[in-house]
Amino acid sequence: MQTPIHRVWFLAIAATAMLTAIGPASISADETSPGLKLLDRNSLSGWQYGDPDTSGWSVKEGVLHADSPKHPLLAGWTFGDFELRFRFKVSQGGSLTLELPAVPQGPGPTLVIDGVDRGTTVTTSSPTTLSLRIAAGQDHSAILTRAGKTLRLVVDGRVNATLSIAISRVGLSLAAHGKTTVADLELTEPAGEPIFNGRDLTGWYTIGNRDSWLVEDGKIVLVNKNGNYLRTEKQFGNFTLSLEYKIARGGNSGVGIRTPREGWPSGDGMELQMLDEQPGTPMTRHSTMAIYGNLEPLAKADKPDEWNRVTIKADGYMISAWVNGVLAQQADTSRLPELKHRHLTGWIGLQDHNAHTEFRNLRVLEAPPGVGLTSWQRPRPVSGAEVALNRLMNLDVLTRPDDTTGGAVTHLVASDGEEVVAELDGPGAVVEISGAYTRGKVSLCFDGNPLPAIDCPAAELNSHLPLVGPPGQPLLTYVPFKQSLKITARQAAGDRYRLLYVKFPNSVQVETFAGPDNTVPRGWLPAISYRYQQHGWGGMREQDEDLDPREHSSKESLEPGKRVSLVKLDGAGIVEWFKLHAPAKVLNNNDLWLEVRVDGEEEPSLSAPARFLFPGLAGGKKYQNFAVLFAKDHGYVNRLPLPFARGIELSALNRGKRPIKDVELSVSIDRRAAQAAGGLPGYRLRGIYQKQSQDGPTKITGRGRWVGLVASEAVASKSAPAFGIRVDAGSGAQAPGKDDRPGTIRVDVATSVSGEQKSEPRVDVSVDSEPLTGWSDDTLGLLCGLPPDETARLAIAGRAGGMTWRWLLESPVDFNHTFTLRYSGADIGNRLALFYVEPNKQ
């Protein structure tokens, strides 16, 4: 980064240069924390926060190499007082530039190192810049120290230059010309203030068993169980925490940060994990210094049966951790699908996970509030993986129209010879695979390459692809292709494939599949897996009411025919989720209805029996999925967002013959996006509910997307009607497997009702008056990824308790004018189709 001369008003400079033997100056009279390595062993982790094009930079065995890079590197850390040590080598005619930009967005002092034939000189080439000319092609060492208003440079133990600065906090940027290397880049900061006095637990509390925690010989010792977290009374925002710990063999513990008083770090704040693992164990989202559940560490540096030194740095959304001086974690959590929602202040805590653990030398160096350098928040190109997978993690993106479209391919293999299952044009990605493909082998060729990147038995396909959820069917994955994807099968007569895919606009960055471990950005798959598990536990973010306010209704008793307004909100925003508290039996019948009215409309945009909005949860069932959950407080939660621009009202209605007591509703409200945009453009949730007696198709007009279908079993009858879907996607037919638009679905389902066997309905879908070919010849069970008669609760679909459901989250069916869903061939019970559509168009 270059420093504009006209913006140096904040920087008072007094520079001197001399040749003298001199040692490093102390940054403080206080004790300092041990040195922290700022370079990962083989990646640019921690340095990708400037221009996204980092070509010309690389890290090998902990050494940073530059070969005339186009753009500087910007680090993900800021500092007050510090000492920075490094070794460097500059080629003849090359240069290395180190800048300390002022937080949040000002320029800062700059050191420019030029490689020359011989000698060493230092000058002040501008009021804010030190210029160092040094022998090229040789190894040199430097120590840059900032203590208060003094910045001092020592090179090779002899060159001393000082600058007087008035900047309170700075970042770190590197630029280079020619070939340059930087090694042993190490930071030391003041250790900060003790948060444990060494004598007792004054300033700490726990909501667990206080007797689990003792103080012995200046250490905090965990001796029992059920100690929960030992938590600081004080709340911390930006800080550097340093501590030492020793844990029993195979033990599990952790450090919680930024957690609300009654919260749990892995769900409401963050937990930096501590886990004693066997040597050689692969690093996962549970390893030491993982952000528990969400992000695996960069390196393993802890030692069994020894004191381990940990440093955790929280700087806005930047979270970093070092173990024994080795960079073990670094992430911009604002770009991660779950962690971006976490608190930026809260307690610091030590976890009791039933393992004898000792802690000592706990200190915190506090930093000013804020989110760091403005450049960290600069918009960056989004990847295809982030677009597609965010639809599972943050369902509010489904409410905003975009240029990413969904499609489907269905193929029945006719022979044992090589047969094309699908040919898809890019940029795009396959996001779901289902069907009956247990016999043959399958090959995937990308971007016109005749050699397959994947060639394996079809039944083992899940072990060769990124798993977005469980390994079973429907198999949720992310298989991107920049130009094209050709899938072929052999020795597979009778196998049947169903593929859902998305096509991206050119503005989205798509890189072709590079193996199951290198295709999805770091942190996305663990976060999705953890969300999936949390819903199975009944867990969700419950301690973020200060971020997203809640509205709670009172308990209501509904007489037959009575309607009660439970929650009514003015203005604009999004109901992120709604939670129903009611007697368990309300999900066993159609007596209790929920209604939603948005933007002052007289007719409800959604009106359906409550059981259709919480499929699979009847009887308080918990299961892992991405849309609904039975919460720990025994509430039924639906996570489909409800956007509104001019108010929203959620009501309950008793359509049964008996009173329904103790009905209560709560919602989580996000108004931030609406406030930033001066309103709330985008789609609104619409539901079309039809009874079994209503044989006609489900039809909706306008622009929008189909996101869900819930159906109940039909009452047993002698005839066997069917179920179908139709979506309109423009004019013109295309060959199977080449349809980029939503297509036709035909579905047959076999279900046993009262001991009587009957056919499952068939499904037919049309979009914009055109059938969706990729959805044809399906049964309702296959649409859900289930064989006939099988009961299961899956990640995005299921059949249980007389209900069948399917969420279309990662690949919804988009339409521009009309969407039609037809049912034929077998009886279909009551059903609810869910859409996001343009406001006031239905």
What key phrases describe this protein's structure?
5% helix; mainly beta; 5 helices; 41% strand; 8-stranded antiparallel beta sheet; 842 residues; single chain; 9-stranded antiparallel beta sheet; 63 strands
Shape: globular
Query: So how many helices?
Result: 5
Number of strands: 63
Give the % helix. under 10%
Structural class: mainly beta
Largest sheet: 9 strands, antiparallel
The span between the termini is: 53 Å
Query: Which percent band covers the strand fraction?
Result: 35-45%
Low-confidence stretches: 1-30, 716-757
- The Rg value, from CA coordinates, equals 30 Å
Mean pLDDT: 88
Describe this structure in words.
- The protein has 842 residues and is mainly β.
- It contains five helices and 63 strands.
- Strands 1, 2, 3, 4, 6, 11, 12, 13 and 15 form a nine-stranded antiparallel beta sheet that branches.
- Helix 2 packs parallel to helix 3.
- It is globular and about 90 Å long.
- The model is unreliable at 1-30 and 716-757 (pLDDT under 50).
Secondary structure layout:
Elements: E1 16-19, E2 36-37, E3 57-60, E4 63-67, E5 73-74, E6 82-90, E7 95-99, E8 110-116, E9 121-126, E10 129-135, E11 140-147, E12 150-155, E13 159-164, E14 173-177, E15 179-188, E16 193-194, E17 204-205, E18 213-216, E19 219-222, E20 229-232, E21 239-247, E22 252-259, H1 265-268, E23 270-275, E24 308-315, E25 318-323, E26 326-332, E27 347-351, E28 357-366, H2 384-393, E29 405-412, E30 419-425, E31 428-436, E32 441-446, E33 454-457, E34 475-481, E35 484-490, E36 496-503, H3 524-537, E37 550-552, E38 556-558, E39 563-569, E40 573-581, E41 592-598, E42 606-609, E43 628-630, E44 636-638, E45 642-644, E46 648-654, E47 660-670, H4 672-677, E48 684-690, E49 698-701, E50 704-712, E51 723-725, E52 727-728, E53 745-747, E54 751-753, E55 756-758, E56 762-767, E57 770-771, H5 780-783, E58 792-793, E59 797-800, E60 803-807, E61 813-815, E62 818-824, E63 831-837
Parallel strand pairs: 8-10, 52-56
Antiparallel strand pairs: 1-13, 2-15, 3-4, 4-15, 5-14, 6-11, 6-15, 7-8, 7-14, 9-10, 11-12, 12-13, 16-28, 17-20, 18-19, 19-28, 20-27, 21-24, 21-28, 22-23, 22-27, 24-25, 25-26, 29-36, 30-35, 31-34, 31-36, 32-33, 32-35, 37-47, 38-47, 39-46, 40-44, 40-45, 40-47, 41-42, 41-46, 43-44, 48-63, 49-62, ...
Helix pairs in contact: 2-3
